[in-house]
Amino acid sequence: MTPPNRQLVNERVQGEEAGPGDVSAMLERGRTLATPELRAAVERLAPPMDTVAAYHFGWIDAEGRPSDSGGGKAVRPALALLSAEVTGGAPETGLPGAVAVELVHNFSLLHDDLMDGDEQRRHRDTVWKVHGPAQAILVGDALFALAGEILLELGTPEAGRATRRLTMATRKLIDGQAQDISYEHRDRVTVEECLEMEGNKTGALLACAASIGAVLGGADDRTADAMEAYGHHLGLAFQAVDDLLGIWGDPRATGKQTWSDLRQRKKSLPVAAALGSEGPAAARLAKLMTEDAKKSQAEFEDFHEAEFAERAALIEEAGGREWTAQEAQRQHATALAALDSVEMPGGVRDQFAALADFVVVRRG
């Protein structure tokens, strides 16, 4: 049974406890297999980049002491390992792809945190806050370079195909970040523009993760494309829930400030959907957003909590919150439908479905 839309954010934030037991096992497998390879990759970096990267991944604290704060849920490595099983191969076949995708993902986080001015990630100060903007840029660049290096070291035709797909996904990811930044200073963004941006920024890399293991295992392009479609729509669903969290999420769960996306003037899906509706709430929101777009960031940062709360209330009144929750469910269903065109072991299909439920709209 699909949970009520109001519960969507809370369920997503609950973490691994909320997912089926096999999802916890998949995520743990992703972490267990990928982490040693990620550590080995980071050790290739010249000092102090190796230490900065280790801090970012949560392996050490700001003073360089060992830490077990972790580096996220490992959804992308889990997808890459699972996709290797689509054609009957061992999950380890997808391990280089899992590591490469995770390196690119963290490259984007390092740069995004700096560009967005985010001071917290996973309940810790971000790299640029601790080690400075220059190190955040350099380490991000280094992780991106390592991703291609690790794949190409395999020296196989499949590795070349996988590298090409990862490179294309990275370019789309960067396109999405550029679109996201450009939208911050526009008073209005359409839902279609927002979906295109989020499909690039989030969907592209999840699409690559869902297919890269299969590619390394020798899957043909038709199979890889179908798995990419699954990952793309899963990414859109995932991002829709993140957009809800970016406005209404509990800072104790998200590790970010209250009204995080509103503080950054992000034109996320709830905002775009609300502005695209009709009625007095949408009109009032549009007026405020037009005024906001003309303000400097310093002026915007002086806003009182009540001003952000007013914007969040108008977005909800105009239907943006409800529409976004429903869009997450629509994209989730489209992701599952993409699996229908791929022949794979039934147990593998079930795990893809369970993972989709876990990261988006856990079913009760």
TrEMBL record:
Residues 1-21 are annotated as: Disordered. Gene3D superfamilies: Farnesyl Diphosphate Synthase. InterPro entries: Isoprenoid_synthase_dom_sf, Polyprenyl_synt, Polyprenyl_synt_CS. Keywords: Magnesium, Metal-binding, Transferase. GO terms for biological process: isoprenoid biosynthetic process. GO terms for molecular function: metal ion binding; prenyltransferase activity. It holds the Pfam family polyprenyl_synt. PANTHER family: (2E,6E)-FARNESYL DIPHOSPHATE SYNTHASE (PTHR12001:SF71), GERANYLGERANYL PYROPHOSPHATE SYNTHASE (PTHR12001). Belongs to the FPP/GGPP synthase family. This is Geranylgeranyl diphosphate synthase, type I. The lineage of its organism: Bacteria, Bacillati, Actinomycetota, Actinomycetes, Kitasatosporales.
